[in-house]
Amino acid sequence: MAQRFLISDGDVVKTVTGWRIAVGGVVKDVLKATVADAGIARQYYPAATSPSGGDPRITWSTATILVRQQSQTISSASIWFDRSIGVFIYNNYPNQNAQGTYIQPALTAGDTGQYLIRVTSISGSVVTGSPTGVWLDLSADAQYLWELVQSVVGTLVASYTISIAADDGGGNPVANSQVDRIVNFNSEVTGASDIGWSDIQRDLVDIKLGEDGNCILTFNQDGTAVGSAHTSGAFVENWLSGTGEDMTVRVDMVSGTPPSGSALAFDLPLDQVRKWTLNATQVSNTVGENFVNEMDVTVTDNLLSTTKRITMHSWRQIPNTETIFTSEPTWLLSETTNTVSNQAFIEVFTDGTLTGKVTSDFPYDEVWHSEAPAASDPEKYEVMLVNQTGKSIGIIGPATDVWLSLATSQAWTFTWDEPTYQLWELLLRIRRIGQVSVNKEVKVLLGNLNDAGDPDFPPNDPEILP
Hints:
β5 (33-37) and β6 (40-44) form a beta hairpin. The protein contains no helices and 36 strands. The protein is mainly beta and 466 residues long.
């Protein structure tokens, strides 16, 4: 039923366009009226106050929209109207589908004869789907859909007017209720792309103590891209998945320090190696460069392009003088006896001292803190024992290769009771939290000659026993 209110003015039927009421002797406009229609309360608005200019339920606006889709094979740029929720949805490439309301409250199958929709061509290609050029009952189908389909490489465009109006009961729009909206369609087929480059972000970090930090991005002619970084984030990725004709790479700065090497902000043909380096060097005895940047790296063929965000962090660290080691830069903890078990110990204490010893001796007794043996702030320091040989068997104590707080003392025990020898090559690192570490090389050599029968033990290799 149309949302109108009619009265008889003599022999003429007229539509009510507004009401007035006297309140306390003052005449006021009525913005909304409710009447009983077969037991159902229906609301009626004067035309001047209706959101559509004539009907309060129509929320379809006059703002132009673009329905766009892109595909490598078949592309369908579509817009559809869902009766059950009163919402229209359309393709919005390269973003997710967009939506809005066109009638509220939503319609049901029982609301026939109330609202109409019509799609009329303005220019361009022909859309398919639901009928065009005629008024359709919005309640007759659960969903109406129009789409512009492209099945070959190229782009189709079209422009249509989509109108929504109240039904006068005879399949025609009620005066002043019709809302027209221009909808432009764009449907593109690109064909298969040769791009293998993904849009997954990469983060290169190269932080070195006493050496230059160098984050490097290289595009090779063999179709691979290599991100080089000492600390983290290194990767190898294919930028090519096809023949690779007419492909280019472009690096655009987003923020930070620009890298050196190949040109920035230009499409560079990939018929030769392209390379960018963020280099951090030493400025003085106490200062090392620390550079960070963000870049968008785009690979393009003659059809499409893919952009990846890459960050670089290059830092040359200068040794921290607050953490000290006295005595030897290298420890050799060696015990080769005929006992059942040979042991060595590395202990780092909260008082600022540390020891390296074997069962029968205490060869190393040093300090790691300038205030030892009464360090006032051990909780501000960390220790890491790096297991450079990767041999975990025989090591007892906290985890290796991770930073451990020196708020508590840390100790490791090395045990070997086999009729052979075992060598652990280690790096003992101590640092103030967040600063550069000071490192000590440690070699632990344990052997048991009991029933060994090994004529070469202990080994004479100078790299093992300097």
